[in-house]
Specification:
286 residues, alpha/beta, AAA+_ATPase, binds magnesium ion, Rossmann fold, 39% helix, six-stranded mixed beta sheet, binds adenosine-5'-diphosphate, 10 strands, four-stranded antiparallel beta sheet
Length: 286
């Protein structure tokens, strides 16, 4: 495994993993059985690829199947049809080298900040002392030096997110899966956390699938934005985001003319789907 220093100083080309970090979703369809015994199609023929080291955001109206897609990429659930391949191999269980971040913090309340961040390396069999040194280093990177011995309930929402980010990235994942990770934060904290995520991602360059309902966040962070249709979810359009990197502050990039142009284009595509999903819920037929 590359040492932390290699990861921090190596060139981007060295950091972008080989093909093992490619995620290929093809013809993905997922059906659920409703409590009434009817078949409900949540996803219909979804296909897109995330290249190694690419940051891919997925936007779509609520209920369109974004989280369902991720549960199949992560191996927590199986497709009804189609496939998900990671590094050319079909996903058939929880895949090595994949880390997650969700909207709710997955921190253990009875463990300290250090204890929470330590868990990944300890599970992977890294000797305790080495794991501790690495956890302290990651806590420093996310700005939490001095908070190692606190418990999650003693931290603000933003600080808990930093701990979750350190806990996900300490494993140096090939693939990082994020399901509305900053969705519960206030606007300013969210912008700060997004900027920090970008800085850390640029250091270790995992392939990222980042789900959000916030279009600004998607454009500010991603190389590509996948727009999904309202339920049953399928891919409506894919946009390449050609804003240069490093992007710097997420708050400031929003004022760039190119950002505004891309944001408008994508919103044109997304608006119709959001309206359709809303009309369906408002009509009580969802
Ligand atoms: N295990 C399940 N059983 C039945 N229906 C489900 C299940 N998981 C998700 N769904 C349904 O699939 C649709 C998509 O859900 P989800 O992927 O959570 O949407 P999103 O994350 O885009 O908001 C929703 O209508 C949801 O109710
Ligand atoms: Mg969801």
């Amino acid at each position: 495994m590359a040492s932390r220093n290699d990861a921090a100083t190596g060139s981007v080309a060295e950091k972008i993993g080989p093909d093992s970090a490619r995620v290929e979703i093809s013809g993905l369809t997922k059906r659920f059985l409703t409590p009434a015994g009817e078949v409900f199609t949540a996803l219909q023929d979804v296909s897109f690829t995330v290249e190694p080291g690419q940051f891919c955001a997925v936007v779509g109206p609520t209920g369109c199947g974004k989280s369902t897609t991720l549960s199949m990429v992560s191996g927590l659930d199986r497709p009804s049809e189609g496939s998900v391949k990671v590094g050319g191999r079909e996903v058939d269980g929880v895949t090595d080298g994949v880390s997650f971040m969700f909207q709710s913090d997955a921190l253990l309340p009875w463990k300290t900040v250090l204890g929470n961040v330590l868990m990944g390396p300890v599970f992977r069999g890294v000797p305790k002392q080495k794991a501790q040194a690495s956890a302290r280093d990651w806590l420093r990177r996310v700005g939490l030096t001095g908070f190692e011995d606190r418990y999650p309930h003693q931290l603000s929402g933003g600080m808990r997110k930093r701990v979750a980010m350190a806990a996900a990235l300490i494993n140096e994942p090939k693939i990082l899966i994020m399901d509305e990770p900053f969705g519960a934060l206030d606007v300013q904290t969210k912008a700060i956390m997004s900027t920090e995520l970008l800085g850390l991602w640029e250091q270790i360059r995992p392939s990222v699938i980042f789900i959000t309902h916030d279009l600004d966040e998607a454009v500010a962070l991603a190389d590509r934005v996948v727009v999904m249709t309202s339920s049953p979810g399928s891919v409506k359009a894919i946009f390449d985001i050609d804003l240069p990197r490093p992007r710097g502050s997420v708050q400031e990039i929003r004022f760039q003319p190119r950002f505004i142009e891309l944001q408008h284009q994508i919103w044109d595509s997304l608006r119709e789907e959001v309206e359709r999903a809303y009309a369906r819920t408002a009509g009580g037929t969802a």
